[in-house]
Amino acid sequence: MDAERRVGVAVDFSACSRKALKWAVDNVARRGDHLILITVRPEGNYESGEMQLWETTGSRPVEPQFFGTSSAAFIPLSEFSDPVVMKKYGVKPDPETLDIVNTAAAQKEIVVLLRIYWGDAREKICEAIDKIPLSCLVIGNRGLGKLKRAILGSVSNYVVNNGSCPVTVVKSSDHE
Predict the structure, then answer these.
(1) Which domain, by its residues, includes 122?
(2) 22, 26, 98, 157: which one has the fewest Cβ atoms less than 10 Å from its Cβ?
(3) For 5, phi and psi rounded to 5 degrees?
(4) What CA–CA distance (Å, rounded) separates 169 from 154?
(5) Which residues make beta-bridge pairs with 137?
(6) How far apart are CA 140 and CA 75, in angstroms?
(7) Confidence band (pLDDT; 50, 70, 90) for 143?
(8) Residue 67 lies in a domain
């Protein structure tokens, strides 16, 4: 069962999501795990191509051996490290995030995959927890004040309260 762990990390390629990713790699991921990065793009008018093709189910499918389902749609590390491939999805991973996951894949012998959803981040992250399914999720916190959090809503707070797996929130520091 340990080899079947699916550790999810919600990423938007910001400083707080990189901190959450680094924390997950350092404290949660073990040899044989699948580290699944979940990113959510806003809904909108999409250009034609692969991005439009996969917007309803997530990213494009990889081999069915991942989690025993052919409907799983993941992008392997080798492809999400390629800027040409990622441009098709409208996602631009930053070099620091790519460095963290490439190093983790090599040193910890884990499988790193990316899953893209389109829509409201709160709902889509909770959907990912159930559909992948994830063993646990690590998510960053932008550190919004009480007023901004009340107006904008907190993605991490929503996921903690509505997610069906253990969720760890990695708080960002005010001075970052």
Answers:
(1) 6-62+72-170
(2) 26
(3) -65, 135
(4) 11
(5) 8, 167
(6) 22
(7) low
(8) no
